[in-house]
Amino acid sequence: MRSTKVILAATAIAAALATGATAKPGDPGREKVVAAIKADHEAAVERLRDWIKLPTIANMGINHREGAEYMRSLVLDAGFQHAKVVPTDGVPGVFATLDAGAKDTLAVYFMYDVKHYEPSEWSSPPLEGRIVDRPGEGKVMIGRGAVNQKGPETAFLSAIRAFKAAGVKLPVNLVFVAEGEEEIASPHFPQVIANPEVRAALEKASGIIIPSAGQSVDGQMTLLLGAKGAVELQLISSGEKWGRGPNKDIHSSLMANVDSPAWHLVKALNTLVAEDGHTPAIDGWFENVKPLTARQKELIAADVAAGNEADDMKVLGIKRWYKEEDYLTANFRLAEQPTVNIQGLVSGYTGPGGKTVLPGRAEAKIDLRLVPDMTKDEAVAKLKAHLAKRGFGDIEVNVSGGYGPTQTDENSLLIKAEQATLADAKIPMTMSARSAGSWPGVVFTGPPLKMAAGQFGGGRGGGAHAPNEWLLIESSNPKVLGFDGQAILYADFLYEVARTAAKAKR
Amino acid sequence: MRSTKVILAATAIAAALATGATAKPGDPGREKVVAAIKADHEAAVERLRDWIKLPTIANMGINHREGAEYMRSLVLDAGFQHAKVVPTDGVPGVFATLDAGAKDTLAVYFMYDVKHYEPSEWSSPPLEGRIVDRPGEGKVMIGRGAVNQKGPETAFLSAIRAFKAAGVKLPVNLVFVAEGEEEIASPHFPQVIANPEVRAALEKASGIIIPSAGQSVDGQMTLLLGAKGAVELQLISSGEKWGRGPNKDIHSSLMANVDSPAWHLVKALNTLVAEDGHTPAIDGWFENVKPLTARQKELIAADVAAGNEADDMKVLGIKRWYKEEDYLTANFRLAEQPTVNIQGLVSGYTGPGGKTVLPGRAEAKIDLRLVPDMTKDEAVAKLKAHLAKRGFGDIEVNVSGGYGPTQTDENSLLIKAEQATLADAKIPMTMSARSAGSWPGVVFTGPPLKMAAGQFGGGRGGGAHAPNEWLLIESSNPKVLGFDGQAILYADFLYEVARTAAKAKR
């Protein structure tokens, strides 16, 4: 989920101000909280390491229940008063509350699942949480989930437990929701939200954040005002469902007089994008696509003006953007265009060389990225209708997860509090009109909750969804927060939410 | 290679004559040879079992050298006087000769490689060669290579060693050539044939056979007069070669402004077959395709008249032929139409569910089946030109093996001797105009050798390229030869080749 964010961050304004949070009048006990965070450093790193040892991988059936129970114990341990596992038809969610007797309530969203990993591709074991030197950055922890999202989440919980340890009253009440299926596009998270107790608690909150390590190498941070929606699905062509071609793999010579489910899939796929192999060509796909607003273009242009096209291309391993567009146009397109992507193709023999089979089954793994005002239901229905109209109605559309796009008002209390927190911490900030990456914010920003929602947090990491995922623990760059700084920023944010809310009421 | 043959055999005339070879005048020592074959039964079965224990799998780097050495030792042990491993740029070949001081020479072709296998799919271990009961058939050996082709080959060698054991002079001299890459379409076998010593030896032979277990469940046998050619290749689309899209897997959200090698491959594949997902649409593909002759259609019609369409469909797991054609038309098409088949598709994430990547590489595993007068070089050149003309010139065409179609004259000495042998053995016989499956017979039937060539042998088996491959060892059906009967039929065939040659010279 984070890789696009990292890219966007890298393109943003690289202002060069020193970081360092200072207490404001009206932040009672802040110094004690900061001291508690620092005193807790070694234990906190150990808690992150322990958590990394227990990977929950939704689509591989790994540690579903265990991950949920562990999540529950982590929030109870941090100071939440009530926490429960919320069963769903898939991996369970977790719900918790912390009533500090404050006037205002903030909600926080966690994911406790991680992407799967191939240990052979890692320089240090993915579940060990080893601390290594990263030149130019400092000491980092290597592990699956380090940045996506156990690391930032551990920093957030460290802030909460520091208030408890320091005997300081939390400035806001907290509502906590977590899921274990973020990496498969949150198929059952709406069930967690629909739980009456969870929903009632969330309705009291003035906004919701997902902790993230959002600083660029220059220390700059980008506040995401929106993100595309994502729908993950598999298109499966099979002789069995088609009623043509074989119901299993047969000898390839039979291609002469038997139909091929693999070719059937290729023909179907071919209709989904235009001849350029890029532009979605599903009937009615652009009907509800809203163009970027002038303000959104302004924000993107500011990002691009500060970005480095050559660096971006190097990171991505590309030589040109789609249609050889210029950097600005390519970034408008990144935010504005819905996509139909092939994540994977699987059919028949997939080993080295060849094998003389005519496969009975072929699968394309697809993800759709949606922009406002597209919805998940609309996208799936249009895809199915498009296929059916062209004689591909037999192809299974197996939706494994997804959600629509999310957008939050830059004038909301949440964004205002985030901006104020960063200003106080002297962390240079830009706003991102819309991330091309996705997170299930629409669960909060859409009906019925319609809350402000966004990723928030300092510090830095990388390698989400890739080998050698890392989180900065001790920063060698004064502009970028290490682990303790990340936790302190969350503590300051809690103060700021209360302050901003108080201002708004005046 | 055999599965199509099995299907064709099943469709052929099911005449019901008792089998049982009888000596002809002028077959000196035949009874001693038959006795020696029977006395050798247990040892021969053990030799087959031992051979199965050593699988050579060309495309997995398994037992290349070991398989060749073992093959060499098997033929020396059977009575060949000279045998050598013939190095190639791939898996080695084997060449051997047996000079019996006879007037005529027969050549024999072996493959010592096998298809790979997934032990978990087998009911008994694929390398154990366990003997089990097969209802309606008798005692069979289960093992990878049992029928394709170590079993029939072992029966052939048992015949040869029986002449030696019985002290009976072989009626013909023998030339032996073997390869270890048949299952990957024989990419280096032409190098074996091009060896001057091998070529000179083969030029003395009046024909060449590949041992096979060719009887149907009714005991009927089909003589293959021809077979389609096959070219195996992988089409690889990559950001690296394309110069567009990423040179590795990147986050799928980038689909908005980055090109996709997977979509590029889909668009390229889409041009290779017509809208029906079946008919080859490569430019000029049918230019050299010769229609079936009246005689070929007559042979196919005879097969079809004796076949059972419902059984064929059940075996294949299909409900209809391409275009809902009738059984006869579908069988004409099977023999006549060149094909472009997708063996496999591989790109990006191939595990369960999805993963948010935009893959840097996509591969389609393709096989082309060729009919006279198409050639391998022509097919590959036309495919490349077709792709290049449509803007897909960057897609790698990685040819991993292949050869053109083969055809043998039904009036050749070899086919005449085969027919006479079967008539004497009272095995009902039909001729197949052309197998849709392939074998590298063109190496022999094409220039420069232009020999008659064909698969030949009695007995029965199944499961080539599938789990639980088997060969009939002790037949419970008097119409079908068990292992000893298979060896005896080869002995009789050697007598018959000498006799037919003598007749031709008169």
UniProtKB/TrEMBL annotation, chains A, B:
GO terms for molecular function: metal ion binding; peptidase activity. Keywords: Hydrolase, Metal-binding, Protease, Signal. The keyword Cytoplasm does not apply. Residues 246-390 form the Peptidase M20 dimerisation domain. The keyword Protein transport does not apply. Residues 1-23 form the signal peptide. Pfam families: M20_dimer (PF07687), Peptidase_M20 (PF01546). One of its GO terms (biological process) is proteolysis. This is M20/M25/M40 family metallo-hydrolase. It comes from Sphingomonas edaphi.
